[in-house]
Amino acid sequence: MKSRLVKAVCLMIVALCLFSRLPGVAAAASRPQAACPIGTVLINYVEATPGAVSAWVSVAGPDGSVLRDLPADAFEVAEDERAAPGASVAQERAGMALVVVVDHGTSMGPSGAPGALTGTRLDDVREIVTPFLWDDALWQGNDWFGAVGFSDAVEPVWDLIHDHVAIGNHVYEMEVGPPIRRAVLLDAVRQAIALLSANPSADVRRAVAPLRKVILIVSDGVFMKEETGAVTDAVRRAVENKITLNSLAIGSRSRSRLPMRANDLEGLAKQTGGQFMALTRPEDRDAVNQFLARLASQSTQYVIRYPSRADPGQHLLRVTVRAGGCSREGTISFVSTTRTPQVAITAPLDGTSVRRRPGERLHIESAVTFPDGYSRPVTVTYLLDQQIIGQADVAPFALEWDPGATPGGTRRLTAEITDSLTGKTGESAPVMFDLSPLQAPQVALKYVGPTAIERRPGATARLEAVISFPDEYPRPLAKVVFYDGDREIGVATSDPFVLDWDLSTVSEGEHLVTAEAWDSFATGFPAARSPRQSIRILLPPLESFLALLARPATWVILVEALGVLVLFVLLFRVRRQVASGVSRATRTVVRTITRPLQPVSPAVPYLEIKSGPGVGTRYPLSRVETCFGRDKDRCDEVINDLHVSGKHFSVRNVGGGFVLIDENSRNGTILNGSPISPQVPVALPPGSRIRVGMTDLELVQPRAAPPTQVVTP
Length: 713
Description:
By secondary structure, the protein is of the alpha+beta class. Helix 3 (121-134) packs antiparallel against helix 4 and helix 5 (185-197) packs parallel to helix 7 (228-240).
């Protein structure tokens, strides 16, 4: 027992020591928390225009009085839970729309209990509320006023007007009605809400929308109990329309407390952010006047404006106000009226035919409209077949477009508009137009000079390519290539397309020169070639003589001539013997040709086209060497195939058989599926298949025809 007591004493001593080291703890615990100076933050109205939002905000203290002169940094503005930069805050006396709901039932008249100030409670209303409405110092020209009375029914009703004195007179002249036998209070409140939120006059609705909307209920609390659902509905309507219900309960100096239904008045005020006040004795008069003055001060609001990029549709605005170390916030939903601008192409017209002309551009233009009525900068981007061709950002949004290398045919033109406000885009209806097609340029080779040129150092031939455009659309060329046969001899890339052909190393003989033009715009077109120009290259006399001696054929001719000379000499010496021999040989020949012969019909091998241009064509191989190609001037046999070179290949008869030789063709020669090397003879047995370009040929060895009897007549 003693040990427990000792422990308890020790714990108490430790606790006292710790508490003594923290003197601020006890002070803080005993210090009362400061009341928040902000009672309610109510966003009365939002005006959303394209690019901007304006909000009218009421900030009231706990007692209902307006908090004035709050700095701009006390407000935080968020749109759809995102901070709204660039917001400005200005304090303005925006105005108030006030509807007074007055109970003038039997209990408010002489048959009821006396008022707190006068003989009847209705006289107390005339004594307190009417001067409040008549006071010019409280009101301005932008305020609106209305009144609704109720007893056993909702009457009379005075619609909203600017004349506060007239409404005060109506309240003053209100007479005592019949006893209240049913629940009428909320019917009167709903009528007041309708005057403020759904007024029959559109002009009144527009004027009242940004104002502070207040209903003041004045009653003695002697009325039938309202159903819970009706109370909830009235509160919902008031909150949705940013209306506060404020209640003034008129008591009696003969009673110490208000009737039970007065609690309903206080509940309506609290649930809508309003204030409640009771007049039960003469001493309450000053407090009631202050209550009404605070109510009138709520016409002062803070107008918040900020730039907005809100899309069309519903949005949420949240305003948070900070003061005195605490914060309160209000929210409201609003609808953005921003609409994406629309664009329509006005030039060219749909179905237009556009012809390319030198130096001319196609004029494109669009009209832009703003469905939301807010003109603002936009950018119009033009697309041809989904490819961007240019932009314009100033009306009339014109573009001068050069068709350039655009392929001809039907083209699809659209305009895409970009809204500078929201970043949204829209597209016009397409415009279809026909663009004249591009045609391959034509080239002619111009050569001014002798057709036969002697080769010597420094000798040149000037070749010029003359270009024409069948589509009447002159344009730069990528290049012009000059050829000697199939061999490239030079390139020109600018007009005039001229080549000085160096002849110092060119071989002797005839040369067929052509030019090939390449279009820089229509790269998909095949290059156009000019007709051939023949130039013969001659050697100098001495060089020609030496070249003649260097040829094996020259020596063959000389040997043959020498042999003929020797034979002639021998024949001259043995002419008699030769004459006798000739006579005998002649008789032998005559006898031979007059007896039956067994001739063999010729069986000449040939090449036959099996597929490609000219299928079925046969080429007899009766020569020692047969040349094949597309150039009839250089070849024995012509193959009409654009992919075959001028001189493509040769077939040579060697000892009764054949060999195939590729003559340095551009696309090569394929024998039985395998390409062969240029200038290398390859055996060509019967049945072999040769492919050149798009043509297939086969070597055919026909059988010998049967012998035929020749009868001498």
